[in-house]
Structure formats: C-alpha cells, structure tokens
Amino acid sequence: MINLRKCFHRLSIFALAVLLFGLTFNLSAQKPKSAPMDLNSMTTSTTGVIAGNLVDENGKPLAYASLYVLKEKDSTTVSYGLTDDAGNFVIANIPFGHSFLKIDYMGYSTFYSSVFVLSLNNPVYKMQQIKLDQKATMLGTVEIKAEREMLQSNLDKKVFNVSASINAEGETALEVLEDIPSVSVDLDGNVTLRGSENVTILVDGRPTNLTLDQIPANQIESIEVVTNPSARLEPDGMAGILNVVLKKKRESGFNGMVSARGGMGFFRNKPVLGNYGGNVSLNYNYGKINVFLNYDLRGYNHVNGGTTSRDSWFGNDTMRLFQDNTGLFSGINHSVRTGLDWFINKKNTLSFTLSYNYNKNEGGSNLQVTDDSIRNGEAIPYQRYQQISSDQRKRHNFDASINYKKTFETKGMELTSDLYFNRNLAAAFDTTTQDYDYPVYQYDIFQKTTTDDNNLTATGQVDFVTPVGKSGRIETGYKISYRSIGEDYRYFEGSEIVPFAQDLSQSNHFVYSEMINALYFIYSNSFWDKLKLQVGLRGEMANTTSDLKSAGEVHKKDYYNLFPTAHLRYDITKEHSLQLSYSRRVSRPSIWQLNPFVNVSDKQNYRCGNPDLMPEFVNSVELGYLMTIKKSSLNFTAFYRHRDDIISRYTEILQDTLDGEPHTYTLTTYRNLKKGQNFGLEMVYGQQLWKFWKISLSGSVYREIIDSEEHLDDYLARDWTWNVRLNQTFTLPKDWVLQLNCRYRAPSLTTGSMGWGSGGVGQGKRSGNYSIDFGLKKSFLKKSLVVALNVRNLISSYKTKIITYNYGQNSGYDAVSIRERTRFNISLSVSYKINNYKIRKEKMPTDDGGGYMDED
Asked: Number of C-alpha atoms within 13 angstroms, CB side, residue 85?
C-alpha cells in the first residue's frame, strides 16, 4: 500500500514551493514606478482591452473597485478586474463585439457604462474618467438580461446553464443531467454519454466522492460536457468529462438568495410524500475580499420496484426463478459550502474553499422469491421465501481547496497552483430476514452486515502559461494525486436454532490506493486569423495497490502511459466554423470492479470484482461544424471511438451445492472484452422562433460494435441506437416563463457498460424510454421573488425492461427484468433575492463617464 505520510509530505513540499515561488516572484517584480503600459500588446486576434480611471465625486481615486465587462446580448460576464491605488484599471481578454462595463463599490450605486464595440480594427477602448456619486443620475438605456441561454453549444464543449432551467428547481445534479444532450440517466443512477457509462464526473474540475444525487441543483452554476478534452485535463473517462461548476458569486456589497421547496410523486398510483428542501446563499464583497456561504437542506423519499424472470439450465437441471421486489428509501441531506477570495493586488489572487456534506438515510425492501425445478414441462416447487431487509446509512464528506493565481507584466503569462483535499467517511448497518414457506423443514435465516467506508483524495497541481510569438502560447503543468478507498464489510448470520455469529468467509476488508504523477505540455497558435491549432501531450505514471486484507491478497500494478491530444479549428467566416479533434483516453478499474470478494446477500444473484482487470484505452476522433447566425445556432458533430480491453459487466450461470442440494445462481463480475468501436452523429440546434419562444433541439444516432472472446451474438454486441430532446422556453407577459422538455431514448445495449457502484446487469439490452417535463415560473417584486412549479415525468415510460442471456455448451440462462420508478413528480419552490438589482435602467444625464448608475 502506498505510504500516506509520504504522500502528504510530497504535497506539503509541493504547495510550499509553489506559494514561495509566486510570492517571491511578485516581490522581486515590484518596481517604484510602473512603465507605461502598451495596451495594443495586450490584444489578441479575438480579444481586446479597455482602460480608464475611477474617482469619487470629489475627484479622489477609488481603489480596488470591482469591475465587470458584460456582453450586451445576454449580460453574461466575459472579463473582470480591479482598480489600483490610483483608481486606474486595465481589463483584457474581452471578446470582440458589443459590451458594457459594470462597476461596484461599497457605499456607491452600481455604475453601468454605455455600450462599446471592440473589433480587430479597433481592439482598444480608452474610457473617459468615471466619477461615482452616491446620488448619481443615469445616462443611456440598457436592458440587463439576467437570463442566459439554457444550452450553449461550442465546438469544444457544451455548457448547460442550470439557473436558466425551471425544471432544475429543487432537484439534484442527477435530474439536471437528464436535460443535457447526449446524456442519459437510468433508474439506478447510471449516467451515459453517447451510449457509454464510462464517464468521468468532476466538480469544479476535481474528482469527487459525492454521488450526483447528493449535489443540490441550487448550488450548480452550469454543467460542462467535454468529449475530447485537452492534455491539461485528466484522461480518465472513455466517453469524456461531465464537469459540475458550482456557484461562486462576486457581486459587490452584501447580497444573497433564500429558497424553499416541497414536492411529491406517485408510485403505482399511490402518493409518495416527504420530499422537501431549502437553500440559503449569501455573498459579501468589499474591496479586495469576497466571501460566500451556501447551505442546502434536502429531505427525500424514493420508492422503486421490479421483477425478474429467469429460466436457467445446468446439465440436466432446469430451474425457473421469479423475483418481485419493492423498496422504500428516505433520508436527509445537509450541505454547507463557504469560501474566500483575496485579491492581494492586480496580479495575485488567493482563494480558499471549504465544504461539508452530511447524508443520512434509511429504508427497507421486500423481495418475494419463487424458485421451481422444471421436470417434463412441469414446475415443481424448490424454494418459496420472502426476504425482508432494512438498512441505515450515514455519510460525512469534507472538502478543502486552496487556489493561487498570478499574472505577469507580459500579457498572457499566468501561473496557477491548486491544492485539494477530500475525506469521505460512511457507515452502514443492514439486517435481512429470509422467511421460508417452502421447503417446510427450512429454518428462517437471519443476516446482519456492517460496512465502514474510509476514502481519501489529495491532489496538488501547478500550471504555467506563457505567450509565444504574436499569437501562440505554451501551457505546461504538473499534477500529483493520491487516492485511497477502503471498505470494511462484516457479515453475521444466524437462524431460528443457531445464534448470530460472524462468518469470516463472507466478511471482507478491501483497500484500493493509487498514486498518479502527471506532466503535460500544450502548444497552441493562430494562423491568418482563421486557423487555430492546439497540440498536447500528457504523460502519467500510475502506481496502484489492491489489498484484500481479509484474505491476505495484495495486487500491485504500475502503468506508464502517454496521452496525445490535437485540436484544429478553421473559422470559415464569423458565422461558420469547423473543428477536428483527437484524444487518447483511459478508464481505470474502480474499487467495485477490482474487489474479488463475492457478495452473496442475494442467494440467486452473486456479485464480485476482478483483481486482474486491465485499464481500458480509447482513441477518439471528432469532426464538428458550428453555425451561428443572429438568433439561430446549429452544431453537427461526427465522432468515432476505438476501444481496447473494454471493461464490462458480465453475467454467467453457475451451480454448486447449498445445504446439500444443487444450487443454481448467476455470478455478475467484470471482464476485459477484446475491443470495440463506437461511431455516430450528434446535432444541437437552437432557435429564437419569436421574441417569446425559444427552442433547443438535440439528438444523436450511433453504432456500437463489440468484439470479445466470449463469442457474444450480434444482438448483444452490435446495435444502432438514437435519442432526441426538445427543450422549449416561452417568455410570457407579466413575468411568466414556461418550459416544456421532451426526450426519448431508443433501446440500447448494456454490454460494454460498467454500471454504478456494485450494481447493474451484465450483457444485454434495455428498452427505450420517454418523458415530458413541465415547468412554470412567475416573478414578483421586480423579480426579487420567484415562484416555480415543476412537474417531472408528466408523461413518461416509468418502466424499463432489460433482456440478458448467456448460452454455453452445457449451461445457460434467459432473463427478463422490469424496473419501475416513481412517476409524475410535482414540486413547488419559492425563492427570494436579497439586494436584487433593478432589471431595467432609465435614461438620466450624468456629469462624466458616458454611463449610467443605479439609483438608491
């Protein structure tokens, strides 16, 4: 096992070196007087710069005022900065186009400038001296459009803005993902991207031990879908990366929002109550300091059910199994997140973030089992029993991060460093009773399990960017990461005549640890203002240890791999662009897939991992086309992926003896399938049909081909599938907004998928499903108070059918599973914004500055 003390020692030295380097460089670079700044040298082929001076009503400089550059089109922030001690400011990296400046300063009204235009011919805009007055008037009329597009489609990634979705009100990240193109979520919480469950989930660009249903949607700013990332990002995840970006406001003064939510659903025509939540978000910004705090409370009730029918044969024995299961799970989730940004000066920023999540849930399930032996076509009872289970779980999750950013006199030169620590502790207690009706001589069996999880993640990263030539740049970086995942599982069993005792053969203590050192290099440049090139290479050295402590088995593996990336973009015109990209990626086995312990809690369906699993590698190529004309956007992407050593669940039929009788059961484990291919076409179309009606239509069609030594037939190894989504937003009079989201996913393979946790089925095919969601929002008090009604699964296929089978020479099985979930989930939420800014500004003349301000 990797030494944890050594890991922290390395991280401490690494952090100290980076901070000392940054601060020392900063002190040595300070001069008594700054040389005149060449604004033209700060422009690029696509961005410009603005400069000016800020004073109060008496002409005194206003230092460290917060400045934001916003796009005229949708009022989104594209760049920001601070004034220096003399009130001067320079803001670069402003995309060409129409923008305006917003200035916040404690004790003064918010200032908005007139719209200015930056272009390739005029990349520099020098503003007149701006004078803030506590009773200032306003000049010019600008409508601040708070609503952003729900889906922003670019060539390199797609961004889903959660705040623009009514259907996300009061939900979690899991429900939000259902509205994102090419992303699907099944009943078990498995997330697929372009048909693959092999997706890397990040939160603010970092791995997380939280499950998606533990991240409240109220804390999410956006979700980024990156299918061919650059070498700067980790290569994990065959299908790509889903990055959850959490909210982090930087508005001046004190502001915030409070919200509350209540909801219910229906399962088999019976109401399911107990879904509620609340959220408080606060932010305070003054001068060089910005502080934020977010607290979220969520209570929930989940009900599920399903059946399994299986015919199996082993030699001359034929068995027929039927299982009917229902489960109810309820719990409460508390989440607190806070942070501080310290703008030390114009070139140095230090940020701290802390978060804590507590989750407690309990539940129970009832499994009815009928197991028959088939002889001469007749079903002869073999087993009849009822399995009643109850469980209690608690989880504590701690996060901490420190980020340092330094810019230099040389435009585009930047140094950043990041330290991240996560600790996840969990405990579970389960009890199960198997109440036998047949055979009559069979005593009832009692089971009890306790599980303790102890997970730790620590990472350190430093990145450096420097310009090269007129429009090129080089990015380099180093990252060290350590991860330890431990599970201590203890199994106790008894019966009506035998007291409870621990069964050491069924107990399991497993620890998986991993240390990864990575270096990367990226070179990018622009040619003729139309052609953009980026090439990168990432090298990783991974050392892993799988330690089955309960059996004394240790498996160590070391991997040394290179991951090249390439991106080529050609701007045909301002409205039409093409991009070709390539990346090599990896999927490393998880603790569930490596743990060789056999879980026999379900006597008919065993599960275990495979310590000999190898990583899965993929080579991915994409060709994209993007068109943006006025109120229309169209994005086509053709993609191809070649997979080697595919990590996949695999189910086979086995037989042994149980209590002296033949016992037939399935074993679901993990295997490396030989290779596979996945190719298809994806489309995202956005259109402002009328002023009040916007649509986003997306869909994809793709082919899956899997080659394996298991000789799977074509039905389980080759498939065409597709999906489509239509999101519509209607902006109605009197501050009413209506959203209607429709989606359909065609039948698809489960072969070649990895599942979530230790659950899921093996090779097979799942049925298609559809749903329609409805959302309605009304704003009051100048949009400070918002009431939203959200109906998920207004119309839906709330059942999923999965077919799986395996045929051998002397054995085989056919199985059909039906999974069922709650339907027609309805919720009502109310939110209130504290210190909400006015949405529309009126015309009033000012003394200077060519702008306008908020009135007190």
From this structure: 4
